[in-house]
Amino acid sequence: MVWLCILAFLTATFCGAMIVRWSRRLRVVYAEDMPQRFHRGNVPRIGGLAILIALLLSWSAGMVSSIFLGDTSTLRMQPWVGWFMVCLLPAVLGGLAEDLTQRLSVRYRLLLTGLTGVLGIWLLGLGVPRLGLPGVDSLLAWAPWIGMAIAVLAIAGLPHAFNIIDGYNGLAGMVAIIVCLALAHVALQVGDRALAAVLLSTAAATAGFLVWNYPRGMLFAGDGGAYIWGVVIAFSSILLVQRHAMVSPWFPMLLLIYPVWETVFSIYRKLARGDSPGMADALHFHQLVYRRIVWGVFHDDESRQMLMRNNRTSPYLWAFTLLTVLPAVLFWRNTPVLIAFCGLFMIGYVCAYLAIVRFKVPGWLQK
Hints:
Layout: H1 2-22, H2 47-69, H3 80-101, H4 106-124, H5 136-142, H6 144-165, H7 171-189, H8 193-213, H9 222-243, H10 250-255, H11 257-272, H12 285-293, H13 302-330, H14 335-357, H15 363-366
Helix pairs in contact: 1-2, 1-8, 2-3, 2-8, 2-9, 3-4, 3-9, 4-6, 5-6, 6-9, 6-11, 7-8, 7-9, 7-13, 8-9, 12-13, 13-14
């Protein structure tokens, strides 16, 4: 499993270097007045391509090793991993198309992620078998199509959730690594080595991308990278709960509550103002942290000043993510406790958001 991670890391690092070196003509940029622009200069946004190549290569190598070595292979990556790769492609290729052209609307990208979800149900047999709630689980057992619909919703939505939090150098990438490691830890606890290998190689490929993304900001993941993280984590979460009854379905929910709740709250916030949920703005939690908390950086070069503030924003959100990941890993079997922590996070998020908006940020948080 270690060699698989090394292969993924080195491949992503090398491909990232090639993209940075040779992608001058592919540096499609946001206009200066776009709300999601928090950098200077033209930076390639196809880092997702480096991650995709690394994953396809490492997963294929793991499958070949498992098939030819048979029982002597510790990876146990069966042909289902190949179907995993096939299902991943519609969403990721759609994201890469948007990164290269900026002409693929949110509606079409949502359809492509939905297609990925449908393929996952068809080729991998995905479905949410239970939610750990009395009555609801009986309904899911009586009508499995409801669990399939929930799976499609999760697979279609999570890539866009990662895309929303992908605003600063290292932010979404490090969140993806933390979540993948947590899922892999529990997968190893229940003896699912193949799923753990998929997750660990994803974390390794993301680390290879981060070599060029944080702190220098020489390469962005783009929609393609965010969709890879979202789909791989959504697939893996569903498979983990589906295969192992001892894993609470609220374990992956608590792991992902930050990007999920950020998306839900963003939709509510925009609808309350009468705006379209698909319209970009600069009022996400990480953007408020950038504007209201990260300050005191002064530099003669404006682009350098923006880069330094950009880099200082991500650690705040990494810590924010760990507040949910740590209890999730500790209580991955205990549904009531996990639900309670989900509720506490949502309340805490809203309180923190309102405090930052009203300029009532605690002094210790600004230091």
